[in-house]
Specification:
There is one protein chain. The protein is α+β, with helices and mostly antiparallel strands and 275 residues long. Helix content is 39%, strand content 16%. The protein has a nine-stranded mixed β-sheet with strand order 2-5-4-3-1-6-9-8-7, sandwiched between helices. Helix 4 (118-131) packs parallel to helix 8 (191-201). It is elongated. The relative contact order is 0.14. Bound molecules: 1,3-dihydroxyacetonephosphate and zinc ion. Residues 29-30, 141, 143, 188, 212-213 line the site of zinc ion (ZN).
Length: 275
């Protein structure tokens, strides 16, 4: 029995491989974290290091994540390498009793630390856990090219991005009826971008980082990967249509069409984003 035989590890590694296959993770781009269930922690416990790593302050704090365990990709590690050597590219982190420090209890065997975006992941986990009554477990950051390209074309507002994406594929209003948030360009990797993103994630389950990428959240790997995939595909359609049409669209999904989709599929669209 290896730690990678544990279903949650296997599913996590598969998601890393799927993200690499989509082309969203050049070099060390992107990161993935998962808040473990207690029974999953117990399954992994026999594989923990004899001596855990040192406690490291995160620069952010969350009461509702005290004592939790997270799987995380390593900073500077390549998604491409995760399936080949999970023990060198991933880690399992324990959060301290004050909700402000982590320590490594498994993984990163050649050294290293969790993703530089761990403060953003951590605060997003905190607000999504609260917003979903504990259901949310996955935070995923990727660098999907079409969505990033859109951040050079549209005003950087949640309304502009949400409308453009909803109008680009009929399933979009069903998959993210609450829309997407937009964070203006900021220096990545620290507490400032973490706070700005988590403010938006109180309301949205995905947030665009201008000229950088996307944060997506969800209860499980499939839903979260599917959200990233749906948003990026809509962005691709948006750019294909605009470029093929020389910057002009002949027709689109109108606001009353969006309302009709919402009615049929039983979802509530963010009304202030409709005309
Ligand atoms: P890490 O290698 O530290 O995870 O950083 C990658 C990234 O995408 C930063 O935003
Ligand atoms: Zn990034």
């Amino acid at each position: 029995m290896k730690i990678t035989d544990i279903p949650v590890m296997n599913d996590y590694i598969r998601m890393c491989a799927d993200g690499w296959d989509q082309g969203w993770h050049e070099r060390n781009g992107g990161n993935l974290t998962y808040r473990m269930r207690p029974e999953e922690v117990d399954q992994c416990r026999p594989f923990f290091k004899e001596t855990p790593g040192d406690w490291v302050d995160m620069g952010v704090q969350a009461d509702n994540l005290k004592g939790e365990y997270f799987l995380s990709t390593g900073s500077g590690k390549y998604f491409r390498n995760v399936p080949l050597a999970p023990q060198d590219n991933l880690c399992l982190l324990e959060i301290d009793g004050e909700g402000k420090r982590w320590r490594i209890v498994w993984g990163l065997e050649q050294g290293g630390r969790p993703t530089s975006e761990f403060p953003s992941h951590f605060l997003n986990h905190s607000v999504r856990k609260a917003a979903t009554k504990g259901e949310n477990r996955v935070i995923y950051h990727a660098h999907p090219a079409n969505l990033i390209a859109m951040t050079y074309l549209l005003p950087l507002t949640a309304r502009d991005f949400t409308r453009a994406l909803w109008q680009s594929a009929t399933e979009c209003p069903v998959v993210f009826p609450g829309g997407v948030g937009v964070v203006p360009w900021m220096v990545p990797g620290g507490a400032d971008i973490a706070l700005a993103t988590s403010k938006l994630m109180k309301e949205y389950d995905a947030a665009v980082w201008a000229h950088h990428g996307l944060f997506a959240s969800g209860p499980d790997f499939d839903t979260t990967f599917g959200l990233m995939h749906t948003i990026e595909k809509a962005a691709q359609i948006y750019l294909l249509a605009l470029s093929a049409g020389g910057g002009k669209l002949r027709q689109t999904i109108e606001d009353n069409d969006l309302r009709a989709i919402a009615k049929e599929f039983g979802v509530t669209l963010r009304e202030e984003f409709l005309d």
